[in-house]
Design goal:
By secondary structure, the protein is of the alpha/beta class. The strands form 2 sheets. Strands 1, 2, 5, 6, 7, 8, 9, 10 and 11 form a 9-stranded mixed beta sheet that branches. A two-stranded antiparallel sheet has the order 3-4. Helix 4 crosses helix 5. The longest helix is centred in the last third of the chain and has 24 residues. The N and C termini lie far apart (about 50 Å). It binds adenosine-5'-triphosphate and magnesium ion. Adenosine-5'-triphosphate (ATP) binds next to helix 2, strand 9, strand 11 and helix 8.
Length: about 290
Protein backbone atom coordinates (compact mmCIF):
# COMPACT_ATOMS: atom_id res chain seq x y z
CA UNK A 1 0.00 0.00 0.00
CA UNK A 2 1.34 3.49 -0.85
CA UNK A 3 1.76 6.09 1.87
CA UNK A 4 -1.32 8.06 0.78
CA UNK A 5 -3.49 4.97 0.64
CA UNK A 6 -2.20 3.93 4.05
CA UNK A 7 -3.03 7.32 5.55
CA UNK A 8 -6.51 7.13 4.02
CA UNK A 9 -7.06 3.66 5.43
CA UNK A 10 -5.97 4.89 8.88
CA UNK A 11 -8.36 7.84 8.62
CA UNK A 12 -11.21 5.52 7.67
CA UNK A 13 -10.42 3.19 10.55
CA UNK A 14 -10.38 6.09 13.01
CA UNK A 15 -13.70 7.41 11.69
CA UNK A 16 -15.28 3.97 12.03
CA UNK A 17 -13.88 3.53 15.52
CA UNK A 18 -15.12 6.92 16.77
CA UNK A 19 -18.56 6.48 15.20
CA UNK A 20 -18.73 2.90 16.50
CA UNK A 21 -18.77 4.19 20.09
CA UNK A 22 -21.87 6.30 19.48
CA UNK A 23 -25.14 4.46 20.01
CA UNK A 24 -27.38 6.78 17.93
CA UNK A 25 -26.43 9.32 15.29
CA UNK A 26 -29.11 11.70 14.07
CA UNK A 27 -28.84 14.64 11.66
CA UNK A 28 -31.24 17.59 11.71
CA UNK A 29 -31.93 18.99 8.24
CA UNK A 30 -34.31 21.37 6.49
CA UNK A 31 -34.93 22.69 3.02
CA UNK A 32 -35.20 26.31 4.04
CA UNK A 33 -33.07 28.38 6.38
CA UNK A 34 -34.26 29.84 9.65
CA UNK A 35 -36.95 27.24 10.35
CA UNK A 36 -35.53 26.33 13.76
CA UNK A 37 -33.09 23.44 13.21
CA UNK A 38 -30.54 24.76 15.67
CA UNK A 39 -33.14 25.56 18.31
CA UNK A 40 -34.58 22.07 17.89
CA UNK A 41 -31.13 20.44 18.08
CA UNK A 42 -30.11 22.33 21.23
CA UNK A 43 -33.38 21.64 23.03
CA UNK A 44 -33.51 17.99 22.03
CA UNK A 45 -29.94 17.56 23.30
CA UNK A 46 -30.94 18.92 26.70
CA UNK A 47 -34.14 16.87 26.80
CA UNK A 48 -32.18 13.72 25.89
CA UNK A 49 -29.56 14.48 28.55
CA UNK A 50 -32.38 14.64 31.14
CA UNK A 51 -33.34 11.10 30.29
CA UNK A 52 -30.52 9.76 32.41
CA UNK A 53 -28.85 7.77 29.68
CA UNK A 54 -25.73 6.02 30.91
CA UNK A 55 -23.50 7.88 28.45
CA UNK A 56 -23.26 11.50 27.41
CA UNK A 57 -25.08 13.29 24.61
CA UNK A 58 -23.03 14.97 21.88
CA UNK A 59 -23.83 17.74 19.45
CA UNK A 60 -21.87 18.34 16.28
CA UNK A 61 -22.55 21.80 14.94
CA UNK A 62 -21.96 21.05 11.27
CA UNK A 63 -23.09 24.50 10.20
CA UNK A 64 -19.61 25.65 9.26
CA UNK A 65 -20.61 29.11 8.03
CA UNK A 66 -23.21 29.94 10.66
CA UNK A 67 -22.43 27.94 13.79
CA UNK A 68 -24.96 28.70 16.52
CA UNK A 69 -25.04 25.70 18.88
CA UNK A 70 -22.48 27.00 21.42
CA UNK A 71 -24.44 30.22 21.82
CA UNK A 72 -27.76 28.37 22.15
CA UNK A 73 -26.28 26.14 24.83
CA UNK A 74 -24.83 29.14 26.66
CA UNK A 75 -21.24 28.14 26.03
CA UNK A 76 -18.62 30.85 25.92
CA UNK A 77 -15.53 30.89 23.81
CA UNK A 78 -14.39 27.47 25.04
CA UNK A 79 -11.73 26.35 22.66
CA UNK A 80 -11.52 22.78 21.59
CA UNK A 81 -8.37 21.42 23.18
CA UNK A 82 -5.87 19.33 21.29
CA UNK A 83 -4.80 16.10 22.92
CA UNK A 84 -2.37 13.44 21.64
CA UNK A 85 -5.48 11.33 20.94
CA UNK A 86 -7.33 14.04 19.01
CA UNK A 87 -9.44 17.08 19.79
CA UNK A 88 -11.28 17.20 23.07
CA UNK A 89 -14.90 18.39 22.63
CA UNK A 90 -16.07 21.37 24.68
CA UNK A 91 -18.40 20.54 27.55
CA UNK A 92 -21.79 22.22 27.65
CA UNK A 93 -24.66 22.02 30.14
CA UNK A 94 -25.50 18.55 31.52
CA UNK A 95 -22.18 17.28 30.24
CA UNK A 96 -23.24 17.64 26.59
CA UNK A 97 -20.15 17.32 24.38
CA UNK A 98 -20.01 19.92 21.65
CA UNK A 99 -17.83 20.53 18.61
CA UNK A 100 -18.37 23.62 16.48
CA UNK A 101 -16.56 25.93 14.13
CA UNK A 102 -17.53 28.69 16.58
CA UNK A 103 -14.79 27.38 18.87
CA UNK A 104 -12.18 27.51 16.14
CA UNK A 105 -12.76 30.93 14.59
CA UNK A 106 -11.02 33.85 16.27
CA UNK A 107 -14.21 35.89 16.60
CA UNK A 108 -17.96 35.77 15.93
CA UNK A 109 -17.45 38.06 12.94
CA UNK A 110 -14.80 35.90 11.25
CA UNK A 111 -16.27 34.02 8.27
CA UNK A 112 -15.15 30.54 7.28
CA UNK A 113 -14.25 31.01 3.61
CA UNK A 114 -14.15 27.47 2.31
CA UNK A 115 -14.97 25.60 -0.86
CA UNK A 116 -16.68 22.21 -0.98
CA UNK A 117 -13.70 19.84 -0.62
CA UNK A 118 -12.40 21.75 2.37
CA UNK A 119 -15.81 21.60 4.01
CA UNK A 120 -15.95 17.84 3.54
CA UNK A 121 -12.52 17.63 5.17
CA UNK A 122 -13.62 19.77 8.11
CA UNK A 123 -16.70 17.61 8.69
CA UNK A 124 -14.59 14.48 8.47
CA UNK A 125 -12.25 15.91 11.10
CA UNK A 126 -15.13 16.85 13.35
CA UNK A 127 -16.37 13.27 13.16
CA UNK A 128 -13.08 11.41 13.38
CA UNK A 129 -10.58 13.66 15.18
CA UNK A 130 -12.88 14.81 17.97
CA UNK A 131 -12.66 12.46 20.95
CA UNK A 132 -16.41 11.94 21.27
CA UNK A 133 -15.96 8.88 23.47
CA UNK A 134 -18.98 6.75 24.35
CA UNK A 135 -22.15 8.65 23.53
CA UNK A 136 -25.77 7.62 23.65
CA UNK A 137 -26.73 10.18 21.04
CA UNK A 138 -24.87 12.44 18.65
CA UNK A 139 -27.14 15.11 17.19
CA UNK A 140 -25.80 16.87 14.12
CA UNK A 141 -27.05 20.36 13.35
CA UNK A 142 -26.76 21.23 9.67
CA UNK A 143 -27.11 24.31 7.50
CA UNK A 144 -30.26 24.39 5.32
CA UNK A 145 -30.49 22.64 1.99
CA UNK A 146 -28.69 19.78 0.36
CA UNK A 147 -25.16 21.16 -0.01
CA UNK A 148 -21.70 20.02 1.02
CA UNK A 149 -22.28 19.73 4.76
CA UNK A 150 -25.36 17.47 4.76
CA UNK A 151 -23.94 15.48 1.88
CA UNK A 152 -20.65 14.95 3.74
CA UNK A 153 -22.39 13.94 6.96
CA UNK A 154 -24.61 11.39 5.26
CA UNK A 155 -21.73 9.99 3.21
CA UNK A 156 -19.28 9.81 6.09
CA UNK A 157 -21.79 8.10 8.41
CA UNK A 158 -23.31 5.40 6.21
CA UNK A 159 -24.96 3.76 9.23
CA UNK A 160 -26.59 6.98 10.44
CA UNK A 161 -29.73 6.20 12.43
CA UNK A 162 -31.65 8.80 10.55
CA UNK A 163 -32.52 12.38 9.83
CA UNK A 164 -35.08 14.68 11.38
CA UNK A 165 -36.55 17.20 8.97
CA UNK A 166 -37.69 20.56 10.35
CA UNK A 167 -40.23 22.67 8.51
CA UNK A 168 -42.60 25.57 9.11
CA UNK A 169 -46.28 25.20 8.26
CA UNK A 170 -46.47 27.41 5.18
CA UNK A 171 -47.01 26.34 1.58
CA UNK A 172 -43.73 27.74 0.30
CA UNK A 173 -41.76 25.40 2.47
CA UNK A 174 -43.54 22.31 1.15
CA UNK A 175 -41.54 21.76 -2.04
CA UNK A 176 -38.24 22.33 -0.28
CA UNK A 177 -39.10 19.90 2.50
CA UNK A 178 -39.89 17.26 -0.06
CA UNK A 179 -36.49 17.93 -1.59
CA UNK A 180 -34.78 17.28 1.77
CA UNK A 181 -36.69 14.04 2.18
CA UNK A 182 -35.79 12.89 -1.32
CA UNK A 183 -32.15 13.83 -0.65
CA UNK A 184 -32.04 11.70 2.51
CA UNK A 185 -33.70 8.81 0.70
CA UNK A 186 -31.19 9.04 -2.16
CA UNK A 187 -28.41 8.72 0.40
CA UNK A 188 -30.20 5.82 2.08
CA UNK A 189 -30.59 7.64 5.39
CA UNK A 190 -33.72 6.60 7.28
CA UNK A 191 -36.18 9.41 7.96
CA UNK A 192 -37.05 9.47 11.64
CA UNK A 193 -39.69 12.08 11.06
CA UNK A 194 -40.79 15.61 10.48
CA UNK A 195 -41.09 18.44 12.99
CA UNK A 196 -43.43 21.30 12.21
CA UNK A 197 -41.99 24.33 13.97
CA UNK A 198 -43.58 27.76 14.43
CA UNK A 199 -46.87 25.97 14.26
CA UNK A 200 -49.42 28.50 15.51
CA UNK A 201 -49.22 31.03 18.30
CA UNK A 202 -51.24 31.25 21.47
CA UNK A 203 -52.50 34.82 21.87
CA UNK A 204 -51.04 36.09 25.14
CA UNK A 205 -54.17 38.25 25.64
CA UNK A 206 -57.11 36.02 24.83
CA UNK A 207 -55.49 32.58 24.82
CA UNK A 208 -56.85 31.82 21.36
CA UNK A 209 -54.71 29.97 18.82
CA UNK A 210 -53.51 32.20 15.95
CA UNK A 211 -52.25 30.68 12.72
CA UNK A 212 -49.21 32.76 11.81
CA UNK A 213 -48.13 30.85 8.73
CA UNK A 214 -51.03 29.58 6.70
CA UNK A 215 -51.10 25.94 5.78
CA UNK A 216 -50.25 22.72 7.56
CA UNK A 217 -47.28 21.59 5.48
CA UNK A 218 -45.93 19.32 8.20
CA UNK A 219 -49.02 17.23 8.52
CA UNK A 220 -49.69 17.05 4.81
CA UNK A 221 -46.13 16.19 3.81
CA UNK A 222 -45.85 13.60 6.55
CA UNK A 223 -48.94 11.89 5.23
CA UNK A 224 -48.09 12.26 1.55
CA UNK A 225 -44.53 11.03 1.84
CA UNK A 226 -45.34 8.49 4.49
CA UNK A 227 -42.99 9.84 7.16
CA UNK A 228 -43.94 10.21 10.83
CA UNK A 229 -44.87 13.65 12.15
CA UNK A 230 -42.81 13.86 15.35
CA UNK A 231 -44.59 16.93 16.62
CA UNK A 232 -45.62 20.55 16.21
CA UNK A 233 -43.85 23.29 18.14
CA UNK A 234 -45.83 26.52 18.47
CA UNK A 235 -44.27 29.95 18.18
CA UNK A 236 -43.25 31.33 21.53
CA UNK A 237 -41.34 34.61 21.82
CA UNK A 238 -39.54 33.20 24.87
CA UNK A 239 -37.75 30.73 22.55
CA UNK A 240 -35.70 33.53 21.00
CA UNK A 241 -35.40 35.44 24.28
CA UNK A 242 -33.94 32.34 25.91
CA UNK A 243 -31.61 31.77 22.96
CA UNK A 244 -30.24 35.26 23.38
CA UNK A 245 -29.61 34.49 27.05
CA UNK A 246 -27.95 31.20 26.15
CA UNK A 247 -30.49 29.12 28.06
CA UNK A 248 -32.14 26.34 26.08
CA UNK A 249 -35.90 26.96 26.17
CA UNK A 250 -36.83 23.64 27.81
CA UNK A 251 -34.66 24.40 30.84
CA UNK A 252 -37.10 26.96 32.24
CA UNK A 253 -40.20 26.35 30.12
CA UNK A 254 -40.75 22.64 29.81
CA UNK A 255 -44.33 23.00 31.05
CA UNK A 256 -45.42 25.43 28.31
CA UNK A 257 -47.10 24.13 25.12
CA UNK A 258 -43.79 24.51 23.21
CA UNK A 259 -41.82 22.89 26.04
CA UNK A 260 -44.25 19.96 26.14
CA UNK A 261 -43.96 19.63 22.37
CA UNK A 262 -40.17 19.25 22.68
CA UNK A 263 -40.56 16.62 25.40
CA UNK A 264 -43.09 14.67 23.33
CA UNK A 265 -40.81 14.82 20.31
CA UNK A 266 -38.01 13.28 22.36
CA UNK A 267 -40.39 10.51 23.46
CA UNK A 268 -41.22 9.79 19.84
CA UNK A 269 -37.55 9.82 18.78
CA UNK A 270 -36.63 7.41 21.55
CA UNK A 271 -39.59 5.23 20.63
CA UNK A 272 -38.51 5.20 16.99
CA UNK A 273 -34.96 4.27 18.00
CA UNK A 274 -36.18 1.39 20.16
CA UNK A 275 -38.38 0.23 17.33
CA UNK A 276 -35.49 0.39 14.83
CA UNK A 277 -33.28 -1.50 17.30
CA UNK A 278 -35.89 -4.25 17.60
CA UNK A 279 -36.28 -4.48 13.84
CA UNK A 280 -32.55 -4.84 13.17
CA UNK A 281 -31.38 -6.36 16.45
CA UNK A 282 -31.02 -10.01 17.37
CA UNK A 283 -34.62 -10.11 18.57
CA UNK A 284 -35.88 -10.80 22.09
CA UNK A 285 -33.95 -13.36 24.05
CA UNK A 286 -35.91 -16.47 25.02
CA UNK A 287 -37.70 -16.28 28.38
CA UNK A 288 -35.76 -17.94 31.17
N1 LIG B 1 -41.03 28.00 17.88
C1 LIG B 1 -40.38 29.17 17.84
N2 LIG B 1 -40.92 30.28 18.42
C2 LIG B 1 -40.29 31.47 18.38
N3 LIG B 1 -39.10 31.67 17.80
C3 LIG B 1 -38.50 30.61 17.21
C4 LIG B 1 -39.10 29.31 17.20
N4 LIG B 1 -38.27 28.46 16.56
C5 LIG B 1 -37.21 29.20 16.17
N5 LIG B 1 -37.34 30.48 16.56
C6 LIG B 1 -36.42 31.60 16.27
O1 LIG B 1 -36.22 31.62 14.85
C7 LIG B 1 -34.88 31.92 14.54
C8 LIG B 1 -34.28 30.82 13.68
O2 LIG B 1 -34.10 29.66 14.46
P1 LIG B 1 -32.83 28.73 14.22
O3 LIG B 1 -31.58 29.52 14.23
O4 LIG B 1 -32.93 27.58 15.15
O5 LIG B 1 -33.15 28.24 12.74
P2 LIG B 1 -32.21 27.38 11.77
O6 LIG B 1 -33.12 26.53 10.95
O7 LIG B 1 -31.17 26.70 12.56
O8 LIG B 1 -31.56 28.54 10.90
P3 LIG B 1 -30.33 28.35 9.84
O9 LIG B 1 -30.95 27.73 8.64
O10 LIG B 1 -29.86 29.74 9.63
O11 LIG B 1 -29.33 27.46 10.50
C9 LIG B 1 -34.16 32.13 15.86
O12 LIG B 1 -34.11 33.48 16.16
C10 LIG B 1 -35.05 31.41 16.86
O13 LIG B 1 -34.94 31.96 18.15
MG1 LIG C 1 -29.07 26.74 12.34
Amino acid sequence: MGKDAEARADEEALLRERMGRIERKIAVISGKGGVGKSIVTANLAVALAWRGHPNAIGVLDADLHGPSIPKLLGMGGDLLEADPEGIRPAEGPLGIRVASMAFLLPSEETPAVWRGPLKMKAIRQFLSDVIWGDLDYLLIDLPPGTGDEPLSVLQLIPDIDGVIVVTIPSEVSEAVVKKSITFARMLKAPIIGLIENMSGLTCPHCGREIEVFSGNAGERIAEELNVPLLGRIPLDPRISEDSDRGIPFVVEHRDTPAGKAFMEIVDRIEGAMREAGRASGPGPSPAP
